[in-house]
Task: structure prediction
Amino acid sequence: MLGASRGVAVVRVVHAVVAVVCVGLAVREAGWWALPLFSLPLLLSQLSFRRYRAIRATRGQTVASLARSTEVAGYTLPGHARRVADLASGIGRELGLGAKELELLECAALMHDIGQLSLVDPVPGGATALLPLPEQRRIGRLGSEVIRQTGVPPEVAEIVAAIPEPYRREDGSRDPGLPRAAAIIRVANAFDDLGCDGGGREQHEEVVEQLRRNTAREYEPHAVEALARVCLREPADP
Amino acid sequence: MEQRRRALPTVARAYVALVLAAALGCVLPALPQVRTAEAWSRVAVLALLFLGCDITARNAGEGEEGVAPAAHFPVLLAGVVLLPPAAAALVALPGTLLAPAAPPRAVRRCWNAAQLGLSAFVASCVFRALDGHRLLMGVRLPALLLPAGVAALAFCLVNGALMAGILAAAEPGGRRRHWYRSLLHSPLPAFGHGLVGLMMAVLWEGPYGAFAGVLALLPLGVSSWMAAQSQRERAAHQATVRALVQAVEIKDGYTRGHSERVGHAAVLMAGELGMGTERVASLRVAGTLHDVGKLGVPTRLLRKSGPLTDEEYRQVVLHPEYGHELVRGIGFLGEARAGILHHHERMDGRGYPHGLAGAEIPEFARVIAVADAFDSMTSTRSYRRGRPVAEALAELERCAGSQFDPAMVTALVRALERTRWQPTLLGHDGDEQAPEVPLGAREPLPRVPAPAAGAAFSGVRGAGRAGGGAGGRTPPAPWWRR
Result:
């Protein structure tokens, strides 16, 4: 998201410079009449930037509401979806994902718990990482079915469905169809479920250690290492 | 559309042939007079620009209607101003002939080329008749505005008339994507685009020639690119709103498609009430999200089939406030938030959450209350069949004044006189094929055939007001009867 808005800012500056050059040339050519006359369309086109910013902000706010839906419903702890999304984006950047992939990653992370809404009673503490695998799979599948109907890119639904999958199968082979983003969100979600109640640096380290012990099958080792870099680099919750 | 794709009526073919003949008749005899190499190089550059604009606009606005009227117009207008009529008519030629078109391809391409060519030819003639080319040589600016403006007007008029002709001939009552329409609909951008075209021409005449002319087009290209980006964001926003609705409907599976139908009905009513476009868009979101607060109500209560206890009822009536809280962060909603908060208020002041009465209730809330009740009555749910539209409307009219705003009920009645209400068609896209998730996902719950959540809690509302004790209540009457 950040990258996109920086791109727009660059385009806007280029637009302004070209506009000034054009009006300057026109004034030289046609006298001062050109100034008000030809500035008008250029100013109008600057408005399109403002409109874009407004609609982008609105979308961001709606996404935030969506991310809060599970916590309002009492299924997850306050701020869980947002934290997982931030953490997953951090890991994704650390692993060098592209802008498009990062956007899908963030979107999927924000909605990863939506399947829980179909449970009649919330999981204690919203900690899906501690549930038995079939139950996790069911929640993931329900979530992805719902996401599929919303009109967000279909990859998001695939990612959400794949989050409960360990990165290695029973026989130790890797599933080539498993989206990378799903492995990342799986790690970020586990970290938040296991470590969010304390928040001190020691606890973060402890949780990372716990995840590292499970990198044989459960958690993708590169993602765990990236997580360690992201969360141990930043000052522990101020 | 389909029909048009299959075959073009003979009248339309004859009309196309006629216009094509007219265009050729105008352009071909005048063509030998365009002798200077400069004029030809200008034609080549402008034609390339036109092609470029066409491709960019096509990529940016893929599959979307109403995207900004691309940078076509200024390029054509610059051609009109800079070139003799026969050459001006050629500017659009490569662009239209190379553009992808639906079959019958050749006819369509010829038509587009003839239409734009003829319009440009006439406009250029007008410009010259008003002595514009001489004014352009000396760049006498205020005086130049008159011929340029008249030429632009002539272009739009000829183009519009030709278009009206083909529409009448080919598909009476049909519609097609055509960019001149947005020119007619939005005079301000059209005026702006016209000025850009003039600026292009003026810069072109200057010492930097074609380079400066092309430069003038860049800001416009940028702004139409931005418009396409905004369109994409808007679509993404819609998707997010739908995701929120879906989140609610997982919990409250009885009301599948209800939210979007309420949004739709509210928009129909807004048409009758004469609301502006901005407010209608806001109302659609408010109607669609009106029950978003049900997220905050325990699923057990939403799916409970028996009557609710006092305690449970207290939790259920909180849903408008949860909803208001949930969408509070969404800046643009404004009026819509009030609609969500107050959609269970009644005209006589016996509603919730604040017990507002009459005109104290925000207009959006009064609209949504009626749309909500209407859809609840007419939609078929797992436990009962939907009632016929006429019966539902009669019921609404009976409750007008006490529960609903009579003006809103009238608006709905009038709106439905014009449009046929199809409750089943207005669910989610592909409702039929979609796996039965929200319904199938329901945990097994001992369910006796009984009214659903909505009915249950309003039933209790009446009982609660009457001061009944907790626990077993009489089976509730449908809530719109209170």
